[in-house]
Write a structure and sequence with these properties.
2 domains; six-stranded antiparallel β-sheet; Alpha-D-Glucose-1,6-Bisphosphate, Chain A, domain 4
Length: about 250
């Protein structure tokens, strides 16, 4: 083995460093937005940069590893393995997110009642000027939502309005959401959900109304930013429905 084979090449170092930088860019972009340092668009630029570096690390790492194995460059192998593993993990994570986005329609406003969606009150003033419109566009959304999420339906309960309101408030608290409005007279509860990494906020409203001797509970969950919500608003409503019906 010659002396050069015992020293790592610049390209193996570059591949490993590129993959590690990619691994840093993803959380930095997300946390920067969460802390209010930059907009979510800037955060996505970090995400795109990390994705590009990860792809380069994987493709370059495969080619470089083949060369290292054929030429007996043992010093390059550990660096290339690190670059490949880190890069592949990032690519797999991003592909998972892309698959989730492609599996649901590009909507972010979900309601159990598509003909008379629950109205927000306090949340309207919390969303900010650059947020998505809060109105539920029945013509554009209702049919798409019902085809994608047929289980999102009003909760028809034997509980009285007061009992359902108390139960709904208990469920919202158990889901770890930030409650911003509790109005028993109006039969309305409003809360905010915040995502872990980017700190994206979704607004939730629960409406409780009388129906015969019982009550009907409706919900609406709306993302403040973004086009597709990756299905999280529907999942939130489904979680509420399941918890509400547990007892």
């Amino acid at each position: 083995m010659n002396g050069n084979a015992r020293m790592a090449t610049w390209w193996s170092q570059a591949i490993m460093i590129g993959a590690l930088v990619a691994a840093v860019l993803l959380p930095v972009g997300a946390l920067g937005h969460r802390l209010g340092v930059w907009s979510f668009e800037a955060g996505f630029i970090f995400l795109a940069g990390g994705a590009l570096l990860a792809v380069i690390a994987v493709l370059g790492g495969i080619a470089a590893l083949i060369v290292a194995l054929r030429t007996g460059r043992d010093a390059d192998r550990p660096l290339l393995f690190v670059g490949l593993i880190v890069g592949a993990a990032i690519v797999a994570l991003l592909l998972t997110q892309l698959s989730a986005a492609r599996s649901v329609p590009p909507i972010h406003n979900i309601s159990t009642d598509v003909s008379d969606p629950p109205a927000f009150d306090v949340a309207v003033g919390l969303r900010g000027a650059n947020s998505n419109p809060i109105d539920y566009d029945i013509a554009a959304i209702a049919q798409v939502q019902q085809a994608a999420y047929p289980s999102i339906m009003p909760i028809v309960s034997d509980r009285t309005v007061v009992e359902s309101f108390d139960r709904a408030l208990e469920v919202v608290k158990s889901m770890g959401l930030e409650i911003v409005n509790v109005d028993q007279a109006a039969g309305r509860i409003e809360a905010v959900a915040t995502s872990f990494w980017f700190g994206f906020k979704d607004d939730l409203v629960v409406r409780i109304r009388e129906r015969g001797a019982g009550s009907v509970v409706d919900l609406r969950s709306v993302s403040r930013v973004g086009v597709s919500d990756l299905g999280v608003n529907a999942k939130r409503i489904e979680e509420f429905i399941n918890r509400f019906n547990e007892a």
